[in-house]
Design a protein that fits this description.
The structure holds two protein chains of two kinds.
Chain A (H helix, E strand, L loop, with lengths): L1 E7 L2 E7 L8 E6 L5 H8 L7 E6 L2 E3 L4 H6 L2 E4 L11 H6 L8 H14 L15 H14 L4 E5 L7 H16 L3 E6 L2 H7 L2 E6 L2 E7 L5 H9 L17 E15 L5 E12 L2 E5 L6 H9 L4 E8 L2 E2 L5 H7 L1 E4 L3 H5 L6 H4 L11 E2 L2 E2 L1 H14 L16 H14 L4 E5 L7 H16 L3 E6 L2 H7 L2 E6 L2 E7 L5 H8 L4
Parallel strand pairs in A: 3-8, 3-9, 6-7, 7-8, 13-20, 13-21, 16-19, 19-20
Antiparallel strand pairs in A: 1-2, 1-4, 4-5, 9-10, 11-12, 11-14, 14-15, 17-18, 21-22
Chain B lengths: L1 E5 L7 H23 L4 H14 L1 H25 L8 H23 L3 H27 L3 H22 L28 E4 L2 E4 H19 L1 H11 L1 H6 L4 H28 L4 H7 L1 H11 L4 H21 L8 H21 E5 L10
Antiparallel strand pairs in B: 1-4, 2-3
Helix pairs in contact in B: 1-2, 1-14, 2-3, 2-13, 3-7, 3-10, 3-12, 3-13, 4-5, 4-6, 4-10, 4-12, 5-6, 5-10, 6-11, 7-8, 7-10, 7-13, 12-13, 13-14
The chains are: A alpha/beta, B mainly alpha.
Amino acid sequence: MTGITKQFSGVLANDDVSFDVRAGEVHALLGENGAGKSTLSNVLSGLYHPDAGTIHIAGRRVELSSPRDAIACGIGMVHQHFHLVPTFTVAENIVLGEKRPFRRKETEERIRALGEEFGLPVDPAAKVWQLSVGEQQRVEILKALERQATVLILDEPTAVLTPQESETLFATLRAMARAGRSVVFISHKLDEVMAVSDRVTVLRDGRNVGTVETATTSPRELANLMVGREVVFSADDHANRPVIDRERVVLRTVDLHADDSRGRPAVRGVDLSVCAGEIVAVCGVSGNGQRELAETICGTRARTSGEVFIDGVATTGRDPREAIEMGVAHIPEDRLHTGLAASASVEHNLVLKSYRRPPISKGPLLQHRAIRKNAQELIERFGIKTPDAHTSTRLLSGGNVQKVLLARELSSDPHVLVAASPTRGLDVGAIETVRGLLLDAARRGMGVLLITEDLEEAISLSDRIVVMFAGRLAGSVDRDNADITEIGLLMGGNQ
Amino acid sequence: MIRLERRASFPKWLGWVIPIASIAAALVAGALLILVSGNDPLDTYSRILDRAFASGEALSATLIAATPLLFTGLAAAAAFKMGVFNIGGQGQFVIGTVTAAWTGLMWGDSLGKAVIPLMILAGVLGGALWAAIAGVLRAWLNTNEIITTLMLNYIAANLASWLIFNSRSYWRLLSGSGLQFPQGKRLPEGSDWPDLSLGSLVLPCGLLIGTAVAVGCWALYRHTRFGFEVSIISDSPEAAAYAGMRTKRKVLAVIALSGGLAGLGGAADVGNFRHVLDPKGLNQSGYGYAGIVIAALARLNPIAVVFVAVLMGGLSNAGRSLQGPDFPAGLVGTLQGMVLFFALGGEVLARYRIRRTVRIPEGVTV
């Protein structure tokens, strides 16, 4: 690809980007969210048409104006969100859209053989809805291989995988490269890029800032290229820790119980307290009730029994509005669809909770001027990168989406901030910002309850770590005595 | 080669250009059709224009035809804004005529013109309560409102027919010619809604009320907390609930508002034009369904609904008065269908853009 430029409503998503992929290599595209990785891959897979620049495949210039053209040129794309029909079988999904007649037996055999060749075992006769996420991804890869893809593009393929599944995927990708195909691996995770790729192209602000051999580089060098400055990896700064006010317990739960969405007990008797200025991390393997705990505290999930006190005042827990008004801020796991209204403008999302009160509304009337002023202030204070305040929030990059959410939640000056996986899926620069904002919140006297699966994050950020297992608190460790092995054992249910 | 490519954003000017271009395209396609049928398109169009808009009388008749469409259009737009698909404008309109006619019959003699606000109130309440049946089902039992509102249309239609044809109800004329032909009682003349006359042009009272209501709807959605909540709920119900909005109540309120607007249309229809409960005429009118088309053409903008309703009213008015041996009877209906067809086509262009692409011949290296 040479000189690819693509502009969206005045924002340059790709600015004269050039890079080449050799046959038989795994080439990583590394960059922060919003650096232009996805745009570039969408150009390569025919979804977007570049404003300028050319694409050559095997020396021949090609014009890709639809995904069909790209497939015909041997480019296969595996999107972050799968495009499969859940009620169809694996084989049916793979040949969907092909023009030759469908012979079930023959097709299933062919797919089984293809799967074995590349280490992608999957039952061709199984229905897609029965498969795990990792298996569904294999189906997507097989679909591309079945169409004779010589260049396979994977957009953040590990975002949905467990560490073990990721390992298997990496082995497959390397096997494909050995077989002479090319793989473009898009990611913002340094360790993965180091583990799987032969060469790395780093994008920043839509520009190619360097292509390096993986063997001759280091994670730190890549991180600096990506962010454009020295990165502080840890928020571990003893001198500047927030001061904890032990006298003031801002969040306390007493024997809290709640069910999950299928009606099974998920939170089973949790006693927890967070003081002003304290950051408490709740660690645990996903699905042990952390998410339900957060939602119960914030009133978006009904409790079955127990009590929650905010700054000493008991809540009824029946209504999210009550929790909001008592000073509970909430960063939910699903930012773009629960924490924000994705299609609504940035300025409207910034008043999603304060629109009920002056100055944003007076009586039943909205004050558009106050909404605009609020947006201008917060965009500047939190450094949100957006073309303007009217832009749809879904058009922003992941890090900026999270900044919009944090800006709104923190600007209400709450007593408690409940943050569920606030850095998941973000790039290095945005993670640094979000962690800094959490520390700031504590410094300003909020109690922070941080739900995370990332142990390193928990240890570097929090004052205390509690481990949740099977709906109960399995143990509590102070930051100074934190030991990863011990916490890991607690997370696994070993006392 | 011509390809469709998805737009990253929706420019504001397109919101105006697309409906206008759709109507223009429909006229061009209609002209071809008229040509094939052996008539002169220009002549036909000039006659339609003449009968719909050219004189005070023509325009007055157009405005009468537009009034019910204005209300059902507003009703559909109000609900669709929140992603609530109230297809029941027709039934809510009919119930509005039933309740407003009852009020007029009951107090028209004793109260005179003072009954008009009561009729409006009765129409709004009738339509709103009728719609609220579907609203409660949708909000608390998660029943598909498209199906319930549609079914309620049939119930409303049959109810109105029963009142006149199969019962000895309060609405039915039980003396004189009513003994031979079942028909409704004429509302007392004192309750007839007044019109505003400007020379030869007559503005029906209902149309003026409808225009004011359209402005009110626009302000409600643009400038109030309620409107803000509606826009968030239509975008993401999860986010709305998370932010502490009472989404179920809002669903009910919006359906009731939509039904109330249709019911107000029913009140205007009976008070302004028919002066009698006329189930046959109502059931054949298709006002409720036309309202959905109008809301779609107006891109759910209440102010635009006013203009689209007048345009559509003009077409049906001209169609009615031009029908005859030298004028194809189905032509106006065909034109209306084409306008909708092209408007839906225009929606595609709103979301995608057309690109011409150049094919590079095989085997050429650049």
